[in-house]
Design brief:
about 290 residues, alpha/beta, six-stranded mixed sheet, disordered C terminus
Length: about 290
C-alpha cells in the first residue's frame, strides 16, 4: 500500500464513530501482532526512506506526520507503528543511516539512548510555532521546515535544556538540584572532550565556574563507574603487583574489556596449571568478590 493510499484508507476508517476519538497512535496500538508482523520490529515508511539521499532519518511520532513529510519532499521520514521506539527499531535504522533527527511532538529523550547504542548520531528537532511537523509545514512551508531541520540540537544540549525548564535557576536550592541532574547526564558521556564542553554549557546555564562543574562531573564519574570496570581495574593492579610481566598478556592490558566471564576464564586457566594456582588464589578471589 502506497503512502497516499494509506492516508485515504486511514481517513475513511476515522469516519467510523467508534474510532473517531482515537489518535493515530492508539489506533495503531490496537492492531495485533502476528507471527509475520511485529510492531516492535517494523518501521513505517522505511522501505522508501532507506532509498533517500538525505543522509539522515527523521523520526516522527506517528504515520500521519511521516506522510505529511513525504508529501512535502522529506523522503527520509519514518515512524514506529503504534509503539515507543525499541532497540530493534534503532538497530534496523542503523543499517541504513548514520544520523537521526528526532521530530517527536513531545519529549524524545527516551529514544536517545536506544539510537546512540545502535551507533547513530542523534539530534533533536524543536518544532516552534506549531504542535508538530505536519502543522509547521502547513503554516510555514517546506523551506522553513528544511531550515529548522538544519538547526536541530545536539541531543546533550537538548537534555540540558529539558532539565533547565524543570527548575527555577534563580533559586539556589533548585539550582543545586539542576546541577546534580546535569552532572549525571554529563558524567555518562564517554569522551573527556564531550564532558568538558557540555559541562561548560551546564555551568553557564547555572552561573557557576566551569572548574567547579568539572570537579562535580569527575567525582560523579568515579561513583557511577560500572562494577565490572572497577573489578577489572583492581584485577590489573593486583596482577601487576604480583608480576609486572603479566601485564603484557592482552587480557590484562585492556582492563576495560575484562568482564565477569573473562575473570572466570582466568580462574579456569590458573586452576588448570599448578604453577599458576597460587597466583589466582592470591589475587583474583578478592577481585571477583568485589
Amino acid at each position: 500500500m502506497m503512502l497516499k493510499e494509506f492516508a485515504l484508507w486511514s481517513e475513511s476508517r476515522s469516519r467510523n464513530p467508534s474510532v473517531q476519538k482515537m489518535t493515530p497512535r492508539i489506533r495503531a496500538q490496537m492492531a495485533p501482532d502476528t507471527p509475520v508482523y511485529n510492531k516492535s520490529r517494523n518501521v513505517f515508511a522505511l522501505n522508501i526512506a532507506k532509498k533517500s539521499r538525505a543522509g539522515r532519518v527523521i523520526l516522527t511520532e506517528g504515520y500521519m506526520d511521516t506522510i505529511s513529510l513525504h508529501q512535502a519532499g522529506f523522503d527520509s521520514a519514518v515512524a514506529s507503528l503504534g509503539t515507543s521506539l525499541t532497540a530493534e527499531h534503532a538497530q534496523l535504522l542503523a543499517r541504513y543511516f548514520k544520523d537521526a533527527v528526532i521530530a517527536y511532538d513531545g519529549d524524545g529523550a527516551g529514544a536517545i539512548p536506544l539510537l546512540e547504542r545502535a551507533g547513530l548520531n542523534v539530534k533533536v528537532l524543536r518544532v516552534k510555532g506549531a504542535k508538530d511537523p505536519d502543522e509547521f509545514i502547513k503554516k510555514y512551508g517546506p523551506e522553513a521546515f528544511a531550515r529548522l531541520l538544519d538547526k536541530s540540537e545536539n541531543h546533550i544540549d537538548y537534555r540540558l535544556e529539558q532539565l533547565r525548564g524543570r527548575y527555577d535557576l534563580s533559586d539556589d536550592s533548585q539550582r543545586v538540584e539542576f546541577l546534580r541532574e546535569a552532572t549525571g547526564v554529563i558524567a555518562s558521556l564517554h569522551s573527556a572532550v564531550e564532558r568538558e564542553i557540555y559541562g561548560g554549557h551546564a555551568a553557564q546555564m547555572a552561573g557557576i565556574s566551569a572548574e567547579a562543574m568539572a570537579q562535580g562531573v569527575g567525582s560523579s564519574s568515579t561513583r557511577s563507574a560500572p562494577p565490572e570496570r572497577a573489578r577489572a581495574a583492581r584485577l590489573h593492579l593486583s596482577v601487576r603487583a604480583h608480576s609486572p610481566r603479566w601485564t603484557q598478556w592482552p587480557l590484562m592490558t585492556h582492563t576495560t574489556a575484562v568482564s565477569a566471564p573473562r575473570v572466570r576464564r582466568v580462574r579456569a586457566m590458573c586452576q588448570a596449571c599448578p604453577r599458576w594456582k597460587g597466583l589466582y588464589s592470591a589475587t583474583i578471589p578478592a577481585v571477583a568478590m568485589g
